[in-house]
Prior knowledge:
The chain is mainly alpha-helical.
Amino acid sequence: MMSLVAQQSMAAANGTEQIWGFLLVGGSLLVAAAFVFLFIAALISILGSALSGGMKLVWIVLAFIAPFLGSLLWFVVGRPDAHRRYAR
């Protein structure tokens, strides 16, 4: 049989593992939700922009081929360029 100290030590280790598991799952879900939000926001922004149909198609295809990178590039490069180009 295990001693009382060994049992308490194992119980504490199991509790710690559960906490880390919850943090890992919660963090993963948070990152996934942020990714989905970024992707959907990029698609809405692309479709609502003043770009021509061909350029919208290029940005949408890029967003679907590389969802994270395409969406990020839209907000960093494409959107400001679209505002400058059609603000005149």
